[in-house]
Amino acid sequence: MNPNDLTLDDFEKEMPPVIPISQVITALLNNGEIFPATYLQRFSDLLPEDARSLAEAWPHVSLERRQTLMEDLQALAAEDYLLSFESVGRLALTDADPLVRFGGIQTLVASECTAPDLANRFLDLLETDADEDVRTAAASALGAFVYAGEIGKLSPRLLAEVEKRLLDAYHSQPSAKVRRCVLESLGFSSRPEVPGLIRKAVENGEEDWQAAALFAIARSADDAWASYVLAMLKSPVTRLSLEAIRAAGELELKEARPILISLIDHDDLEVRLASFWALSQIGGRGVREVLQSRLEAADEDEVDFLEEALENLAFTDGENDFSLFDVTPDDLFPEDELLDDELSDEDFD
Q: What 8-state DSSP symbol labels residue 96?
């Protein structure tokens, strides 16, 4: 049969049958058998009735299986952007086990879930959860909502609420780890208090705080930090150098090009790859030649990344027709997933 003659019915006949949710749940509850990996995708985009069935069975699923399931779904969502495990992630947020709650947050982030009510869920976890790792994950997850607010895709009222509570958490959280993640999320914010918090972290002698400062700077879109970033590119501490490389790329610091070019011969693969990408973000004279030359002599660990960097450089230098790829904030944050000003005060309780 000519493929052009195929109808929609023909394609549907060729598609594998949908696994009933009851069959998936039975497998989840069966501790005597390994849960089939082929069932994992079935958790994506659950219908409301399927989500209810899973919620009813959830308390009876063994702890180890709940933990493993969230790890697997997070990894799968990170690999395939077409998959969304929002229903399972939301369910995991209410779990009694902190590792499952942590997995729920990570799965929602990997699934790029930006529904407005999740901002309040994450804020509540940040403020009240007994587990430090859960609070840390919640603090990190809130960065997406600050960014959405900064590009006008979140209600000003909710953005103000998120920023206020993040600032409160920065000053009140006993865990330095949580406070650093709060700072990183606030990196997107244009609130006047934020530069001072970044400056305090910059001046802190601890590596963890300096890394958090560079992470926040990368999100700030503020080239006032250029001199600090340029200095940290030469840091002997690989972690700090990496964060500075990423910040230089995000801020598109042209002054960083010579240093970044020197770093593409670094012994550390991660440093080399980060430098390739930062150069592709900055662009400019000579960058294409440098990356192309490196591609011709690249080892197997670098080839795919260099090809992607060269593609990104084409966009940076305006070599492609952007009208064909008209990506707007609406594409990143669909209207039906973001808050308007019509929500009642109950949404902030």
A: S
Using 50 as the pLDDT threshold, list the residues of the chain that sit under it: 1, 11-13, 320-327, 336-337, 340-349
Residue recorded with tokens 């230098």: 317
d(C-alpha 74, C-alpha 254), whole Å: 36
Task: Let me know if domain 244-319 sits in CATH 3.30.2010.
Answer: no
User: Helix or strand or coil: residue 106?
Assistant: helix
Coil, helix or strand at residue 36: coil
Number of residues that this document lists for the chain:
349
CATH topology of domain 114-222: Leucine-rich Repeat Variant (1.25.10)
Give Dmax over CA atoms of the chain in angstroms. 70
Q: pLDDT tens digits, residue range 141-182?
A: 999 999 999 999 999 999 999 999 999 999 999 999 999 999
Cβ-proximal residues to 55 (8 Å cutoff; 6+ apart), any chain:
91
The token pair at 265 is: 């011969």
Q: DSSP secondary structure string, 126-171?
A: HHH-S-HHHHHHHHHHTHHHHHHHHTT-S-HHHHHHHHHHHHHHHH
